[in-house]
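Changelog-adjacent note: as of this version, every example in the card shows the full chain rather than a window. The one below runs 264 residues end to end.
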Amino acid sequence: MSELLKVSQLHFKHSNKKNWLKKPEIFELGPIDLDVKRGETIAIIGENRAGKSLLAKLLVGALKADSGQITLNNQYAPQGVQSTQISHDVRMIFQFSGEAMNPGLPVGKILDEPLRLNTSHNEKERRQLVEDVLIKVGLLREHVYFYRHMLSDGQQQRVALARALILQPKVLVADEPFAALDPSVRSQTVNLILKLQSEMGLAFIFISHNLGIVRHLADRIIVMENGQIVESGKTETIFRWPQHETTKKLILSYQSLVPQQTLR
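Full-length structure tokens:
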């Protein structure tokens, strides 16, 4: 697999100002170095406040880094500030997909908006692209007329995935995309993402506390602690031979919940 996304020395310092009686909380992330190959799935794991979600926001350009660079297909974006093309090529899926949908707009309008704002397609062409992406994520063309309250949790997640795919990105970034789904819907969503990866050559970066899904889905794992990458490697290597204490703690916690025969 060829290298698609490269992050070099990405650094971000966040100061959460409290009231005048308390000192501000400062969280520093980085410097972060990582690369993502075409069609690869990378899981980011770690305990709470490790900096996982912050890194995801930096990757999609929702936050600007203080320094460092992101390169996509050799297109350079300094200090974590993504160009328009890079922002199109790296898209995010949110954990609570329903909350990210405007309840006053039908699905068709929600999916049409990124096309209308970012492309030169006319209305007829946009409608065709909207219907095509709905089919691609396992929904019907008729879902363009549906509102949020008319959709199940699984269907809302598929709409969120369709919105992320509508601009034909090369990388999807997701923060706990499966946490709010029941097990059967979760399984369907995982399988759908695997199918889309195979068809579209997508790279997928996701944050998860569910190490069962991580082991099933990820090619590589990145372990974070206190804003730093403390360990990374192939999934089975990390699960079988964790090196860092944080990794060992996470894997041991997972293994304690899984019947031993499934670990052989």
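Structural remarks: Residues 3-96+171-263 form a domain with the Rossmann fold fold (CATH 3.40.50.300).
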